[in-house]
Write a structure and sequence with these properties.
Blueprint lengths: L1 H32 L3 H13 L5 H11 L7 H13 L6 H10 L8 H15 L2 H12 L17
C-alpha cells in the first residue's frame, strides 16, 4: 500500500512538473515573439529542466544565436542532445551545421556533422540536407577548409 501511495505521489509530481514546464514554455514563447530574449531565456531553460519536450531545442537555438544569453555552442549542442533524447529528430540538421562549422568553443567535427546531416536527410528526405551533405563532402560553403567562428549565421 505504501509503495502504491509513493508511486501515486511521484506521478502527481511528474504531472505537475510537466504542466509547469509547458506553462513556462508558452510564456517564454510569448517573450521570444516580442524579442524579449533576456526574459525568455531563463523561462525556456527552466521549462527544459522540468522536462518539457520542445524546450531544449529552443534553448539551444537561443545559445547558438546569443538571444538573451552569451553565445555558447558547446552548451547548445548539449541541449540539442537532450532534444534528441526526447525524440525531437528535427535537430539533426542543426547539429550537423554546428559541428560542420565549429567555433564559439565547439570543436569542429566533420564526422559528427556528416552523421547528423545524414540522419536529417534520411528522416525527411530533405533536399536541403542533401545539398548540405554534398557541400560538406566537397568542403564547400560553410564547410570550407578554415574553421572560423561566424558571428552572423542565418539560422
Amino acid at each position: 500500500m505504501l509503495s502504491m501511495l509513493n508511486t501515486l505521489i511521484g506521478l502527481k509530481v511528474l504531472l505537475a512538473n510537466k504542466y509547469h514546464g509547458q506553462r513556462l514554455y508558452f510564456e517564454a514563447q510569448a517573450h521570444l515573439e516580442a524579442k524579449e530574449y533576456k526574459t525568455a531565456f531563463p523561462l525556456m531553460k527552466e521549462a527544459s529542466d522540468l522536462g518539457y519536450e520542445f524546450a531544449p531545442a529552443h534553448v539551444a537555438m537561443m545559445l547558438l544565436k546569443g538571444q538573451g544569453v552569451t553565445v555558447n555552442w558547446p552548451d547548445a549542442v548539449k541541449y540539442l542532445g537532450i532534444a534528441l533524447e526526447r525524440n525531437n529528430k528535427d535537430v539533426h540538421m542543426i547539429l550537423g551545421m554546428a559541428y560542420g562549422i565549429g567555433g564559439y568553443g565547439l570543436r569542429r567535427d566533420l564526422t559528427k556533422a556528416e552523421y547528423h546531416l545524414m540522419q536529417s536527410q534520411e528522416k525527411d528526405n530533405d533536399p536541403a540536407a542533401e545539398e548540405l551533405l554534398d557541400m560538406l563532402r566537397k568542403r564547400k560553403g560553410p564547410f570550407g577548409a578554415k574553421e572560423i567562428p561566424r558571428p552572423k549565421i542565418p539560422w
